[in-house]
C-alpha cells in the first residue's frame, strides 16, 4: 500500500512540472472583426486544461493512462481490502465536417495488496453516425466487453478456484428523423453474452447453459411542440439461450414486450432529458417459471443550474436473467442524482447518491441498496488529472448474511495527451 502511494506521489510531481501547456492562460481568444462588415467572428472557447490529442489523419487520438489506489473497509461484504490498478485507454474521434466516428478501447488490471486474486476487465466500442438529408441520421455501433463474475453475485457458482470470465458482444443500427413536427426513430440491437466455465478443486464447472443472445427492436414516435416532445415507444425482444435446457432442466429463453409513453425536453444547453413510464411483460418458455409483468419508469436529466454547477438525475427499471430454479429473473429499480461544481477552472467538486430496490423474483429475497459519494478532481495542466473519491455503500437484504455496510476511498492519477 505504501509503495503504491509513493508511486502516485512521484507521478503527481512529474505531472505538475512546468510545461508549455500549463502556460496557456487565456480561455477565450480575442475576437476579430471583418473590415467593412457588421459581422463579428469570435474564436471558440478553448479550455486550457482539456487534452488536445494527437493528429492521426482525419482523426484525433486521445491516449491516457490512469493509476489508482483503492481501499475499502468491507468490500462487497467480504471484509477489508486494498488494491492498485492500472488503466490504459485510447479514444479516436473523427474531425469530419459531416458524419462522425468514434472508437474507444480501455482495460484495467487490478492487483490486491491485502491478499486475493488479481482481476481485470476491458472494453472496446466503435460508433458511426451518418448525417443524411433533411435532418435524418443513421447510427451504427459495435462493442466488446470482458469482465469477471462477482463472488457476491447469487448466480455465481460457489467454491470456485477463480472468477470465470464473461465476454459481451453487442451491435446496433438505428435510423432517426422526421417530417415537420413528427419525430420517429427505429433501432435494432443484438447482444451476446458468453460465460466461461469455472474450476473448483481442479475440476471444470460447466456454465455453458448461461450463454445467450438477446435481440431487440425498438420504435419511437414523437410530436415536437417546442421545448417538450411527447412520445410513445414500443420494443420487442427475445433472449435465446444456446442450450434449450439449463442446469436445472428448465427452458429459460424469454420473450419481452414493453410499451411506454413519456416526454423528452431540451432548452438550449441549460436543460435536457426525458422521462417515461409504461409496462414490461416477459413470457418465459418453461411453464414452471412464472411470467413477469411490471410497471416501468425510466428517465434522465441534465441541468446546468449555473455556469459553474451541473445537476444530473436518472431513474431506470431493468429485468436481468438468473440461474435460480425458482426465479424468472431479477428486477431492479434504481434512482441516481449528482451535482458537479467547478470551484476553479481546473478544480471540480462532486457529490452523488444512488438508491436501488432489487427484487429476486421467486426467491423471497429483496435488497435495498444505498450509495453516497464525494469527489474532487484537480487538473494542473492539460497532461494530468489528480482525483480523490470517498464512497459509502449500505445494503439491507432480507436474505440472512447478505446485509453489509462499506466505506471506500480512491486516489487516482491520470496522464493524458
Give a summary of the structure in a few sentences.
This protein has 417 residues and is mainly β.
Q: Can you offer a commentary on this structure?
A:
This protein has 417 residues and is mainly beta. It has one helix and 23 strands. It has one helix at 2-15; strands at residues 32-33, 40-41, 54-56, 59-72, 81-94, 100-112, 119-131, 137-148, 165-179, 182-195, 198-200, 203-205, 212-223, 228-241, 254-267, 271-284, 292-306, 309-320, 330-344, 347-360, 365-381, 384-397, 404-416. The protein has an 18-stranded antiparallel barrel. A two-stranded antiparallel ribbon has the order 1-2. It has a two-stranded antiparallel sheet with strand order 11-12. A hairpin with a 6-residue loop joins strand 22 and strand 23 (404-416). It starts with a helix and ends with a strand. Residues 7-43 have low confidence and may be disordered.
Give the SSE order as H and E letters: HEEEEEEEEEEEEEEEEEEEEEEE
Q: Give the overall shape, derived from the CA principal axes.
A: globular
Count of DSSP strands: 23
Report the mean per-residue pLDDT as an integer: 88
CA-to-CA gap between the ends?
28 Å
- The tally of helices reads 1
Give the percentage of residues in beta strands.
over 45%
What structural class should be given to the helix and strand makeup? mainly beta
* Radius of gyration from CA coordinates: 24 Å
Give helix % range: under 10%
Main sheet summary: 18 strands, antiparallel, barrel
Instruction: Indicate the low-confidence ranges by residue numbers.
Output: 7-43
